[in-house]
Amino acid sequence: MIGFDHGMTVLLSTPGVGDLDEVVRALAEWRREGAPMQLHPGDVGYYWQFGPERTAAALRTWRREGRLVGVGLIDGPELVRLAILPEAHDDEELALQMVDDVTRPDRGVLSAGKAHVEALWQGRFREVLQEGGWEPDDPWIPMIRDLSEPVSDGGLRIEVVGSELVDDRVTVHRSAFEGSKFDARRWHAMAAGTPYADARCLLGFNDRGDAVAATTVWSAGPGRPGLLEPLGVHRDHRGRGYGKAIAVAAAAALRDMGASSATVCAEASNTAAVTTYRSAGYQPRPAVRDLRRVG
């Protein structure tokens, strides 16, 4: 672990590979029903496709007296996605220190110029950033499906992806997300990661046996909200209800894993995605926005 202590009681660090399990456990413990969405262990799990060393290098942690109180995932040079200890939403010291760390390029979180911060909770951190001139970015819609009741069949044959289905999984993903470089090597790296022990990769097949839709679901443990990341439909099979069906299957899988709810966040501008999730029983919550600094 590389530290950046300048006499502060809140210490910013870059974790090592040996610290990843602790970070994932903390993110899972911080996911609580009814709490605002924030960085999920599944987000780290999906990033694990790049391997544990690169995953550790992309993470930042904030500690107070050795205890994790904040985690950031640097998802490209202009974006950091954050989570904090739920009890610390109004923690002045933590907010001030995290703002200092994410806004100063020399702190090793974001580079100078244009930048985005994903911090979806209300509290002092967002307030301090906006007082410093950061602006709300485009809206996202958190969507949640309660899993207290059984989930009916979505009408699509679903298989849990293992080694024998990886090629089909990759084909659907690359068709659904234009420009994606996801491949079998990345899938195996993701599946070897610690968070994937609480995950399942689902592949949906139509009546002809074609692989038409896919998603990966991530649990944060029994009684906690689970996550869909990502979900996509093969471009040749869109408009036939397969997105709804795989979203229903995702909810069913998460319920089987003990999750209290299935959660996903869709761009408000992506009306097709929002409509699909709503049709699958995911209820929209008030829009949330990242914060941006214009370069």
Automatic annotation (TrEMBL):
Q: What InterPro entries has UniProt attached to this entry?
A: Acyl_CoA_acyltransferase, GNAT_dom
Q: Where is the N-acetyltransferase domain?
A: 156-295
Name any one GO molecular function. Answer: acyltransferase activity, transferring groups other than amino-acyl groups
Write down the SUPFAM superfamilies for this protein, in alphabetical order. Answer: Acyl-CoA N-acyltransferases (Nat)
- Superkingdom in the source lineage: Bacteria
Protein name, entry field: FR47-like protein
Lineage of the native species? Bacteria, Bacillati, Actinomycetota, Actinomycetes, Glycomycetales
